[in-house]
Design brief:
- The complex is a heterodimer of chains A (132) and B (79).
- Chain A is 5% helix and 32% strand.
- Chain A is built from one helix and nine strands; from the N terminus they run E-E-E-E-H-E-E-E-E-E.
- A seven-stranded mixed β-barrel of chain A has the order 1-2-3-4-5-7-8.
- The longest helix of chain A has 6 residues.
- By secondary structure, chain B is of the alpha+beta class.
- Chain B contains two helices and three strands.
- The N and C termini of chain B lie far apart (58 Å).
- The chains are: A mainly beta (132), B alpha+beta (79).
- Chains A and B meet through strand 4, helix 1 and strand 5 of A and helix 1 and helix 2 of B.
Chain lengths: 132, 79
């Protein structure tokens, strides 16, 4: 049984999302009862949001390794505190919706610090079909 | 832009704690080693540009798109 995604009222991005240099504070909000589809909503710009999902339902083998710099940045002390979110690019239907496996958003739920981590793995696509 | 010529094995120091060393030159491929503190993010420029584009495309989907996706996902899970 999957742990449901926690809702987090304020997440601090220690580095802004590439493309959005001025947005540092987001809320993680569930969009369905199962906690699968969630959104990161900007607290500074109410019009800005990103759809995110936990990888496990869609990419069960996805196990990104983050470097010591990320562990230090997010002040990670226990792996239990960490959640990984994939940013979705919503298409017109489920079949054209893609997930960014190259750069997941890693959140330390203990410190509420987060960062979009660029994984140094050429096999991870930036736009993987969410469902095969 | 500052332009410098370097040979293999030679370095450039940027600021107090970033060193870029030319490791190998083979044809049109140059391998560089970058020594920088953890606080300095080092990325391939095109990767970062790609991510910026992807993030902009992903930003703020319409309510319709979200509703469609949410419904489809629920269907997929139930099925």
């Amino acid at each position: 049984m999957m742990r449901s995604m926690p809702e987090i009222p304020v997440i601090d991005l220690v580095h802004p999302l590439p493309g959005f240099p001025d947005q540092r504070r987001f809320a993680l909000v569930q969009l369905d009862e199962d906690g699968v589809l969630c959104q990161l909503r900007s607290l500074d710009d109410p019009n800005l949001r990103f759809l995110v999902v936990p990888p496990v339902s869609f990419f069960p083998d996805y196990a990104p390794e983050v470097g010591d710099d990320v562990v230090a940045d997010l002040q990670i002390e226990s792996v239990e505190d960490v959640i990984v979110l994939l940013v979705l690019n919503a298409g017109e239907s489920l079949s054209t919706t893609t997930a960014n496996l190259m750069a997941p958003v890693v959140v330390n739920t203990a410190t509420r610090r987060a960062s979009q981590v660029i994984l140094d793995d050429p096999n991870l696509p930036i736009a993987a079909p969410l469902v095969a | 832009m500052l332009v410098l010529s370097r040979r293999v094995g030679e370095s450039v120091v940027i600021g107090e704690d970033v060193t870029v060393t030319v490791l190998e030159v083979r044809g049109d491929i140059v391998r560089v080693g970058i020594d920088a503190p953890r606080s300095v993010a080092v990325h391939r420029a095109e990767l970062l540009a790609q991510l910026e584009t992807s993030n902009r495309e992903a930003a703020s989907p319409s309510d319709d798109a979200v509703a469609t996706l949410s419904k489809a996902l629920r269907g997929a899970q139930d099925g």
